[in-house]
Amino acid sequence: MTRFLIAITVFAALATGVGFLLSGEEDFAWGVALGLFGLALLGEALRLWIRRKRRPALDTEPPARQSAEF
Q: Which chain regions cross the lipid bilayer (predicted)?
């Protein structure tokens, strides 16, 4: 969970910086900043979902080992 929070914090800072750079003098570029941050959230959520999907369940028994003897 710590990696998730660090990644989201870095992406929030990056999206804010890009929003300021593209905004000019009038108004902050909310669409660009929120769009970039949304893509970052989507990517991190997908990474967590794939990681959770690949993890074996804790309540199941491991498969039995087959003996090399006949």
A: 29-50
From CA 64, how far away is CA 46, in angstroms rounded?
32
The token pair that represents 17 in the structure block: 């910086």
Statement: residue 70 has pLDDT above 70: no
Domain total in the chain: 1
Query: Rounded to the nearest 5 degrees, what angle is found at the Cα of 31, between the Cα atoms of 25 and 37?
Result: 115
Domain limits at 38?
2-54
Residue 60 lies in a domain: no
Query: Residue 11 CA to chain centroid, in angstroms?
Result: 10
**pLDDT at residue number 39:** 93
With respect to residue 32, please indicate whether it lies within any of the assigned structural domains.
Answer: yes
